[in-house]
Amino acid sequence: MAEKTLVVVTGPTGVGKTAVAIRLARDLGTEIVSADSRQIFRDIPIGTAAPTAEEQAEVKHHFVGILGLEDYYSAAQFEADVLALLPALFEKSDYVVMCGGSMMYVDAVCKGIDELPTISDAVRRDVAERLERDGADAMREELRRLDPVYYNQVDLNNMKRVAHAVEICLEAGRPYSELRTNSVKERPFRIVKIGLNLPREQLFDRINRRVLKMVDEGLVDEVRRVYPLRRLNSLNTVGYKELFAWLDGTMDYDTAVARIQKNTRVYAKKQLTWYAKDPDIRWMEPTDYEAILKVAKGEE
Q1: Is residue 61 part of a domain?
Q2: Is 184 among the domain residues?
Q3: Do the Cβ atoms of 156 and 142 come closer than 8 Å?
Q4: Predicted pLDDT at 2
């Protein structure tokens, strides 16, 4: 039996992953698994740059628009769900293309993540209420009390991560740092990681133009529709936060759009910093398709 291969197409936001992944999936006779922690939600396709109906008609995509905005989902659930799906996809083809820039989701499937407790609704609600009531400094202090080791490792400005670590400590009854082994799990298939990138100036220009295109395509109307739900974690992301601030009256419109562009560029840099730690990624430009296809097939 031919060896099965998961071809991962990843890279910074705005680089052009979707177009390359669709072309690869067509040429390899397979389907696409989306590894994007925001495109998985329904009702926000413009701001998350989700594959269009036409793109999804061209090649079947999995994990796009399957969750409600209020639904809880995690990298651990994504790992389990993808590993459950892959055998059926590998029955139809020797290849599956996974496309996305959510670093934790890609790592969950490729390397596995530690078994962590499922957070109960009661703990999640309690931590969310405390964050709302007492603020970020109090949440940081709670993490320092519960897990001083992880407190010294985590980005303390990333409140989503800080709050989630507190949830895990409370649910498990022990420090999060004790549960993290960072061991790589064996997978019963070959993994080829292709990282798409462009010269910095070109990438940033693409990002800036893509934000303006989103606005032209109706991003403001999309944000207005979900504005009543703005406290949900699924909407705590670039594009929505800035326009929520505009709707709240704390930022003017032009500043909000410029801030979306800037924060998207910052996120791209953060992604590239994360990827730099992974020696398995083969870096290529999205225009170099023939070389990408050869790497995907293991021909070079």
Answers
A1: yes
A2: no
A3: no
A4: 63
